[in-house]
Amino acid sequence: MRKNGRKQVFQWTSALLAGFFVVNALCFGYERQPGCLVTPELPAASVWQPGAVIVHGTEGYGISKVDENGFLNSDGTLAERYVLMMGASHTQGKEVSPGQRYSTLVNDYFSGGSGFLTAYSIASDGHFLPSQIRHFRAAVEAFPNAGAITIEIGSTDDSPRELHDARKQPVYDPGNGGFNNLSPVSRLKLAAKEGLPLLTLLKKNFQTLRAQAAEETEGPYDYETELDAALSLIRSQFDGPLAFVYHPTTEIQPDGSLKLGYSDNWEIFCQVCEKNGIDVIDTGPGFTRLYETEQKLPYGFSNTTPGSGHLNAAGHRILAEEIISYLEENRV
Question: Does 142 score more than 70 pLDDT?
Fold first, then answer.
């Protein structure tokens, strides 16, 4: 009887392991992320492993190749002058094909098939406004020939405390935080992560739930005061055209119309930007036009919820059109 019990446990364990590795193998064509490093002294909060391939199928579907700097861009050499594009996962655009990203569309418009990169994205996951301010100094030092900078944001309701802390910008250090300095143990961990995409997917879902449950204590910080100080700082570090690219949320109403959702601090944010000589590109009117003329929403995919989540191909197109118009008006 005991022998039969051990046999049963062995069979169950074998079945579970076999199932795990079958699903893990399927993840290589469905959801696979390469190694990623947190980079405090570089232009963005994190970078991907250079030369790696990202497969993203849990929302939309896209296959992306990482460039030599750890970001998602087309192949090519930086032009003499270019638009530096900061942002988070919306700017990365892992949910669409590389040719549909707004950074690629802007690049293709201005490059004219020259092979030079006229728009360069340094976006990274979770790289929201406070993080972009913290890394802004490193960004302009790493890319000194930027003729203009755009910063993508989906909300202006950032934590005043985080805005305050973001002004403590680290010194740019191109030799720190890169993949070349990894220890053998760290390289082994990255190899395991790439070889087990199913575990990475499960971990990502767990971290999302934990982040949603987290609470933050603000302390004695005022939003407008901290935002003004932060924007004044980055304006002093770059004297060219500088614009926030804001994309509001969308919601279809019972009567079939489209409602745009703006952040609570939207008006204050625009006023502080104007005070500091920073432009704001509001893509809301473009989203409304998209819905009224093409009956399309800028967010959502066939395998997710329409109108929510990350920018889809239509949403990226609207951002590209608005940015191109802004750059042409400013003769960048």
Answer: yes
Cβ 68 vs Cβ 49: under 8 Å: no
User: Residue 212 belongs to what H/E stretch?
Assistant: helix 197-213
Q: What does the domain layout of the chain look like in residue ranges?
A: 30-173+242-329
pLDDT at 256 over 60: yes
**59 touches 102 (CB < 8 A):** no
What tokens does 29 get? 């064509």
CA distance 44 to 37: 10
Query: How far is Cα 63 from Cα 307, in angstroms, rounded to an integer?
Result: 22
91 near 71, Cβ under 8 Å? no
Say how far apart CA 145 and CA 141 lie, in whole Å: 9
Quickly list DSSP for 126-182: T--HHHHHHTHHHHHHHSTTEEEEEEEES-S---HHHHHHHTSPPPP-TTSS-GGG-
Kindly report the CATH number that applies to the domain delimited by 30-173+242-329. 3.40.50.1110
